[in-house]
Prior knowledge:
Elements: E1 3-5, E2 11-13, E3 22-25, H1 28-36, H2 43-48, E4 51-55, E5 62-65, E6 74-76
Antiparallel strand pairs: 1-2, 3-4, 4-5, 5-6
The structure holds zinc ion.
Amino acid sequence: xxxxxxxxxxxxxxxxxxxxxxxxxxxxxxxxxxxxxxxxxxxxxxxxxxxxxxxxxxxxxxxxxxxxxxxxxxxxxxxxxxxx
Length: 84
Ligand SMILES: [Zn+2]
C-alpha cells in the first residue's frame, strides 16, 4: 500500500479505494473544458482528470500531487488564524 509520512509523524496510507484521506480537485477552467464540451466522460476518465491530494487527519496538512503520484507532493500547512 502506498504511504507517506506526514511531517507531524502521521502515516498517510492512500492505496485503498475509496480512500478516506484522499481528495480530488480540478480547476474551474479544466472542469468547464470537460463538462461543457459534447464529450461525455465516464467516472474513470473524470477521475483521471483530477489532481489528487491527501489531507492529514492529525494536523490538517495538505499534500498535493500536482504531477501525479510518481513525483513528490507539494506540502501546504494550515496557517495560524489571523489576529483580530
Ligand atoms: Zn500531519
